[in-house]
Amino acid sequence: MTLQTKYLLDESQMPKFWYNIQADLPKALPAVLHPGTLQPIGPDDLAPLFPMELIMQEVSTEREIEIPEPVRDIYKLWRPAPLYRAHRLEKVLGTPAKIFYKYEGVSPAGSHKPNTAIPQAFYNQQAGVKRLTTETGAGQWGTSLSFAGSLFDLEVLVFQVRVSYDQKPYRRAVMETYGARCLPSPSNETQYGRSVLAQRPDHPGSLGIAISEAVELAVQRDDTKYALGSVLNHVLMHQTVIGLEAMEQMQMADAWPDVVIGCTGGGSNFAGIAFPFIGHALRGGKRSRILAAEPASCPSLTRGKYAYDFGDTGHMTPLTKMHTLGSTFTPPATHAGGLRYHGMAPLVSHCKDLGLIEAAAFSQKSCFEAGVTFARAEGIVPAPEANHAVKAAIEEALRCKREGKSETILFSLSGHGHFDMAAYQKYFSGDLADDAYDEKELAMALSGLPSVPEPA
Fold this sequence. Notes:
Layout: E1 6-7, E2 17-19, H1 43-46, H2 52-59, E3 64-66, H3 69-75, E4 83-85, H4 87-93, E5 98-103, H5 114-126, E6 131-136, H6 140-151, E7 155-161, H7 162-167, H8 169-177, E8 181-185, H9 191-199, H10 207-218, E9 224-226, H11 233-238, H12 241-252, E10 259-263, H13 268-282, E11 289-295, H14 300-303, E12 305-310, E13 319-324, H15 346-353, E14 358-362, H16 364-378, H17 384-403, E15 408-413, H18 421-429, H19 439-447
Parallel strand pairs: 5-15, 6-7, 6-9, 7-8, 10-11, 10-15, 11-14
Antiparallel strand pairs: 1-4, 2-3, 4-5, 12-13
């Protein structure tokens, strides 16, 4: 019998709506607070940063938001993305489990990030915006927004975390190919960047610092807005095309996942694969275990505190309730730059608090080992971020082997690692370290969380 490997949807089967999990949650998401008054913010408070259409998506509790036709037309460049059955990996592991992966590396940018970059650029152009500022870690988000900016004639300025800027020069080159300007963060182009460099000239940077720089410049000009690649509600919602397609493809495969896995940094890729399945269960459908895989060096879900905190290090953003390591926390300079964020998306954090998801943290070297195992079986070299999902999937498959269970495992392979080969070279030469965070720095960052009184 011939075993099917790929499950492909026709372009006509691509989702026409994004899914908003807020419609199905048993308890509403805690309010976003103004950092000065500690009162819930309204749409007008966010207007300096985002166009009103995205702000309304941010606060919406409608289950479905229609995907504009111009966005769907661009999505067709790579969507629907393929679902694969990992027959060869199953054989290598000797597991009775069935392993599926949704591959987002087929996008022009090589990751899931254009799923939100395209609509964000579209809505900004519709609002008359001329320039977007943003931050990026490993560079996948910066690459994606640069790509989107080129399609909608928007100037794009990217602040890339300095350690990733130095580690991944080819990512920077791709951004410049798309017409964007990319700067290492902290930089001398912002007041906040200069203040960080004054204290530590060799600062490796963090996503929190890069966000502060991008926000600082965005509010200075009327023709400029800020774009964020993760964390926010509307960003996570845009990514649900991943899970919505996967649900259709799993039915094509006559299977349904017992376990759904995504890597987690800010939460967008994880939400993309997981939220449609969580919503399916909340509406009375079959429930899957939902597992978030994060780096042990930046473990916001497994070590962070569920509390109100700033989304950036310079404290320019509103306060959101999330699992956080503290906004002043600087993670070690690992190669999974896209997962080096001090906080987790409020919606993902809320799902964790409600018991709807589980979380596990994995070391850098063990994730690269899993990525190499996957590449040698399936042929795709995963991005360091995606290796965390691969590692979690392999651990689940080996658990099934020990328990003699034929469970179905689905994970999101969020991007390829073609720009990350220096990290793989370090792994093969034995120079890749499992850098641990400083426990004292973590304690200090958590002790500095804003004081927000609990609602009566």
